[in-house]
Amino acid sequence: MKPFLVLLFGPPGSGKSTQAKSVAKVFGAVHIDTGELLRRILHDPARQHDPKIQEERIKHEMDGQLNDSLWVGGIVNDELRKLAADAKSVISSGFPRTIFEAEIELPVMRELFGERIFAFILRVSEETSLFRNSHRRVCSKCGKLYPWSEETKNVEFCADCGAVLTTRPDDKPEVIKKRLDVYAKRTMPFFNYFKSQGIKLIEVDGEQAPGAVFAAIQSKLSEVLPR
Question: Is residue 60 scored above 70 in pLDDT?
Answer without folding.
Answer: no
